[in-house]
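User: Show me an example of a complex going from sequences to structure tokens.

Assistant: Sure. Here are the input components:
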Amino acid sequence: DIQMTQSPSSLSASVGDRVTITCQASQDISNYLNWYQQKPGKAPKLLIYDASNLETGVPSRFSGSGSGTDFTFTISSLQPEDIATYYCQQYDNLPRFTFGPGTKVDIK
Amino acid sequence: QVQLQESGPGLVKPSQTLSLTCTVSGGSISSGSYYWSWIRQPAGKGLEWIGRIYTSGSTNYNPSLKSRVTISVDTSKNQFSLKLSSVTAADTAVYYCARDPTPFGRGGFDPWGQGTLVTVSS
């Protein structure tokens, strides 16, 4: 099975800061990588699909990049409403889907 | 737009079978090329994909749960269901249903239901 790791596991940043989260796959997954945002008590929300494509309606301060085994998720200017846990998820090895362990983002 | 809603008992006794239903509204479960998935999340932990079904009845399951999971679909009711047998406390989690565009298309799980908490306890 493909294992996903994320770093850091949590971070605190100030409003307006640039925030970067990394996700690493245990083997090459091309760009079959999605990113989700989960706010407390809510279902995850798809933000980015295929590593770098912004889902319709998602603010442009969110972006993703990478391919192969190493991926990056960036919030260009952190806003208070971005407080959440962010998960990466691979779907290269269908029909086995695996999620990363998550990165919790807080306001400093 | 398509919306999903989970329903079912919030409390299940150990060794019994957990049963949940996901009702799809705002569109037909049979229209478009989508699988329909179940995903769970223990409190304070990450997300685990359980399995999925296509409207033809074709299913895929997480190997770690395969022996205990059955997913079925009722197109007449626009619903799909999850059964997880022989539950233990480790199965206590929020259970989500979600739409999956693969393998027909690319992308992620979207939309999701709001989730339902199932507690396994005597």
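The lines above are the inputs; the final block is the predicted structure for all two components together. The first strand of chain B starts at residue 3 and ends at 7.
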